[in-house]
Design brief:
Radius of gyration: 16 Å
Shape: globular
Number of strands: 9
Order of helices and strands: EHEHEEEHEEEE
Distance between the termini: 35 Å
Largest sheet: 5 strands, mixed
Oligomer: single chain
């Protein structure tokens, strides 16, 4: 076997506090937060003079993690266009299973989130939507029916 598990997904942000609050409101738990710098991180990511703050959040089941990084040096580079549509190459969203999709959307709206499209139903199986949160981060929400 070549893969043991998927460990985490990294999201680079400008406002670490706002994005942490968004994911905590979604239901994730903050595992830790702190500064990262030094030769070892420069070797791993291929950038010199790195100084950043990172936060690790985990899903309630303990299996999924999102790592957030806010770079102090060098400054982060914004991709274009800023609010890229779903057909843009690259990672577009992270999907989360939720119990009550409408309640989750309402809570995330208090953190500035907006629906990307509409809340839709797929057959008798799921209710789904994409939500754009702080810094343009897109999360998918899926509520299993029945």
């Amino acid at each position: 076997m070549t893969i043991r598990r998927m460990d985490n997904v990294l999201i680079v942000v400008d406002d670490l506090d706002a994005v942490i609050a968004f994911f905590v409101e979604l239901g994730m738990e903050l595992e830790g937060r702190g500064p990262i710098e030094g030769r070892w991180v420069e070797q791993v990511i291929g950038i010199t003079d790195v100084r950043q703050d990172v936060a690790m959040l985990r899903t309630p089941d303990g299996h999924g993690r999102v790592e957030l990084a806010m770079f102090h040096t060098p400054k982060a580079i914004r991709s274009q266009p800023e609010d890229a549509p779903a057909n843009t190459l690259g990672i577009r969203r992270i999907m989360f299973a939720v119990d009550d999709i409408e309640a989750v959307v309402a809570r995330l709206r208090t953190h500035g989130a907006e629906l990307v499209g509409e809340l839709a139903q797929y057959e008798d199986s799921y209710r789904l939507c994409y939500v754009r949160g702080p810094e343009g981060i897109v999360v998918g929400l899926a509520e299993q029916l029945g």
